[in-house]
Amino acid sequence: MDKQLTYKFIELELLSLLEKENDYIASLANCTALLYEKLEQVNWVGFYIIKNNELVLGPFQGKVASTRITIGKGVCGTCVKEGKTKLINDVHKFKGHIACDSSSNSEIVIPIFKNNEVIAVLDIDSPILNKFNQDDQFHLEKVSKILENSRIFI
To answer: What Cα–Cα distance (Å) separates residue 100 from each residue in 61, 71, 114, 124, 150?
Structure first.
């Protein structure tokens, strides 16, 4: 399936899933499953949620992951600190990268906001170098906006 169509399907399916559920854990779990199933060449999709000023592992698909990440550390912690998407073409060149799965080579992390503060991040890894581009960033930021505008974080 064409990448644009895949993302359109993801957006529509996510809207449908969120319409029927208001629990954020259930909703994030379904979101990770949807992204993991529909995106090609990814080996980890999940959320880290800010609790007590650190990132705590939330729903995910893939291998075992770091349970807690300090804000400002690794790609996810840097995303929170900067409040913007981090698109990393080669994680091995990112100073301070936290390696959970040695087969991951590229990563994109998108912040999720509530009341102008980052409350969580969507983290997606791939075994392919340079897997993610500006087009992926645009569409995954739309996924983030769909989550932000849903009632799951009220």
So the answer is: 13, 17, 28, 12, 30
CB 50 within 8 A of CB 71: yes
Q: What share of the chain is helix, strand, coil (3-state, %, to 5)?
A: 40, 25, 35
* Residues 134-148: tens digit of each pLDDT: 999 999 999 999 999
Token digits of residue 64: 């075992």
C-beta separation of 125 from 44 below 8 A? yes
CATH of domain 3-149: 3.30.450.40
Digit-coded pLDDT (tens) for 71-95 = 999 999 999 999 999 999 998 888 7
